[in-house]
Amino acid sequence: MNNSEDKRFIYDEVSYPELCYSLTHPGRVAAIGTLLGLRPPAVEHCRVLEIGCAGGGNLVPMAHSLPGCSFVGIDLSERQIDSARQFAAALGLGNVEFRHMDLIDLDPELGAFDYIIAHGVYSWVPGPVRERLLAACKRHLAPNGIAYVSYNTLPGWNSILAVREMINVRTRHLSDPREKVREGREFIASILTMIPHPEQSPFALFLKDYIATRFRRFADRTDWEESMLLHDELSTVNEPVYFHQFASHAAGHGLQYLADADFPRVMPNDLEPADAVKLQKMSGSVVDFEQYMDFVRDQTFRSTLLVHDNVAITRQLDGEKLRGLYISSRARFVREDDGTEFFRTAEDARWPAEEAITSAALLHLESIAPRAAHFNDLFKTACQMLNLNGTPEKAASVLADDLLAAFCVDTQLVELMAYDPACASIVPDLPEMSPVARHQVRQSRIVSNLRHEQMELDPTARVLAHLLDGQHDRTALLQALASRSEGTGTTITEQAAMHIPEGSTIDEALVTELEQGLAKLAGAALLLA
């Protein structure tokens, strides 16, 4: 948010991608607050303000999934606010309002909000605007509310700043934003090829990794990639800060650090135990400890949660806090040839299958994924699976402590939420895709699922999307697959004929494709329960 004409022009000319950001969702934020001894406002009936809402890609999916809440989004770009209003209107939402305004004009009469979101604002605006941003968080945050503020961090951004300067020098004669990005990309790629002995050059290794990660964020979506580069690395203002500087700045506005929205990041899981102890001894505060971990990890980005400075925070984690939360897991049970049993995520985070009650609970969560289960219901089911009579308190404590420990390792192992996303774990007879995703797929392959996560739809899902309205059965969906093409010049039937398993017919291949496609959509939390 910035009142300069340059900023207004660039965002009106090149919009920021309409994406959702899972960590900003009140359901996840409230769960972290609960763990740290707060009593966050009920997610199902909260007020949410997003500062820098862009085209509504983050706020509209929330408003659709939480009809009992009210949402307000503000942004300086008139074009993006118009897009956000159209997005909300297309879904018939009456609980979200978008305002075209500068942060300096934020109306004090808007009142208090239970959750405030400022994603992608703090580092990308001048100092005076950062002051207004934190002042607005202080002024408009409810007494027990939580604010989310993201920003680029040092020391990780030191190397990226060098790339930014290299591109700016190379493209200083260009005025067209997209041309600037394209020329900059080509220049950095060329520089990498010219570095002598690249295998021995730390900077060459950095550039190689940078190109692979920052230039390839969205498969075949060059426009989104260019937009994100333009509004991040090449933004007119981009001032990363050290975490301790941000925490101090927030304290100056009467706000205190709660946690990182990516909660496992605050845990020293990736450090050797002796090193974690050493850092603890060096640290005089929570802020010190996390700053030192940022040094060790060369941290580039943070998603910080803030609360009022008079709020009492309990940093001693206790599994008992889980008893009011919903639990989900993306882990799968694995038994290796040597008999070792554990639960593993797609990115190879692991949890040992040692405690019977925890293993039973994770097996149940695997069976209902991507749905969540309330802790009490999960414990009851796990007891039934083990034929445990009654509700043994010791087993409940073991389960709560284990789930908390797994959450602190990886949110794909265990995720904690203060609400239950209404997604299907099995495919209904009349499957219905989230209306938000069905609207988004008309313009993009990247959509928001019912858990407020970004998902990329494959060709089969894009063919089916317009019929996944809860009114079409398998026969109608098969007809869609058999008749529609995906820009290849052949029908889906003809494409299927090229990949028919031996001994199968085209019809059988289409049935398999349909069932697999629907199962993937259910697994991706895109089908309504």
What CATH first level of the largest domain would be assigned? Answer: Alpha Beta
Number of domains as seen in the coordinates: 4
Q: Which strand-content bin applies to the residues?
A: 5-15%
Termini distance? 38 Å
Task: Give me the CATH fold name of the largest domain.
Answer: Rossmann fold
**Proportion of residues in helical segments:** 40-55%
In CATH, the homologous superfamily of the largest domain goes by the name: Vaccinia Virus protein VP39
Low-confidence residue ranges: 1-5, 485-500
Based on CA atoms alone, the radius of gyration comes out at 24 Å
Molecular structure report:
The protein contains 20 helices and 16 strands. The chain folds into four domains: 5-155 and 240-308, 3-Layer(aba) Sandwich (Rossmann fold), CATH 3.40.50; 163-231, no CATH class; 319-417; 435-523, no CATH class. The chain is globular. Mean pLDDT is 90; it is low at 1-5 and 485-500. Helix 7 packs across helix 9. The protein is of the alpha/beta class and 529 residues long. The chain has helices at 5-13, 26-35, 59-65, 78-90, 127-140, 157-170, 177-194, 202-214, 222-231, 243-252, 273-282, 286-297, 356-368, 375-385, 393-409, 435-440, 459-464, 474-483, 492-497, 506-523, and strands at 47-51, 70-75, 96-100, 113-118, 141-154, 241-242, 255-260, 301-308, 326-328, 332-335, 341-344, 350-352, 373-374, 415-417, 446-448, 454-456. Helix 5 (127-140) links the parallel strand 4 and strand 5. The strands form four sheets. Strands 1, 2, 3, 4, 5, 6, 7 and 8 form an eight-stranded mixed sheet that branches. A three-stranded antiparallel sheet has the order 13-9-14.
